[in-house]
Recover the amino acids of this structure.
């Protein structure tokens, strides 16, 4: 399942800088979310996935300032809405029976969230009231250094943080994906699922929205001279 989920997470390459802010307006996908996900079209699935995806691209294609960018990053939270879209998209692309949607959906929810699919109620419900699994993100890294140089972090993913708007942050607790190790070696590209603790180092819950359907910031240190900060602002 993890390999399949990572395959669905593709990226388009443009010029970028060190920080990016994505302003997202929920009404863009409201009509889709009001429908039963088992009947979403592939276009609707892609629209949901695109809505939640954020990256460190810049809107300024032409710049007189030389870029110090070494890494391109695209991220997407694995919440109820994106997992529903990924599950439905898998059913469509593999031409599976519609009933398979619920099996795939429940598998992804169990793997990456503290939610589950309740067949009797025909809806997604909480499976863990403490939300101990935290928040998972599908993250795509690509080394675009020029001149090229490999990037190696011996301490791996301890350089990466999930932050709320108040500056409270949590650390990576689990990493999975193809070719993913405890260290981070970025020669070309790498797709990984990063899971962050739901609590800060002081024990404070960094988000009260268990679906992470609110504004946040991801910070990636150690990959280049300056931190890479990706802001996802929900309006």
């Amino acid at each position: 399942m993890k390999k399949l989920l990572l395959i669905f997470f593709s990226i388009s390459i443009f010029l970028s800088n060190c920080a990016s802010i994505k302003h997202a307006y929920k009404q863009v996908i409201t009509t889709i979310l009001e429908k039963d996900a088992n009947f979403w079209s592939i276009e609707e699935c892609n629209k949901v996935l695109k809505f939640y995806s954020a990256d460190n691209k810049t809107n300024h294609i032409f710049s007189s300032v030389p870029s110090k960018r070494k890494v391109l990053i695209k991220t997407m939270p694995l919440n109820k809405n994106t997992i529903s879209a990924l599950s439905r998209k898998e059913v469509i692309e593999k031409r599976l029976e519609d009933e398979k949607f619920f099996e795939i959906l429940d598998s992804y929810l169990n793997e990456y969230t503290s939610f589950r699919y309740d067949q009797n109620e025909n809806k997604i419900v909480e499976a863990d009231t403490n939300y101990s699994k935290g928040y998972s993100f599908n993250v795509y890294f690509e080394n675009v250094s020029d001149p090229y140089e490999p990037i190696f972090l011996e301490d791996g993913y301890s350089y990466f943080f999930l932050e709320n708007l108040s500056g409270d942050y949590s650390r990576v607790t689990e990493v999975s994906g193809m070719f993913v190790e405890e260290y981070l070696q970025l020669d070309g590209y790498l797709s990984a699922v990063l899971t962050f603790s739901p609590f800060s180092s002081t024990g404070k819950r960094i988000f009260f929205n268990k679906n992470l359907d609110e504004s946040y910031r991801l910070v990636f240190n150690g990959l280049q001279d300056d931190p890479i900060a990706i802001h996802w602002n929900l309006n």
Observations:
- The radius of gyration is 18 Å.
- The chain has five helices and 13 strands.
- Helices lie at 2-8, 27-33, 42-52, 80-94, 100-112.
- The first strand starts at residue 19 and ends at 24.
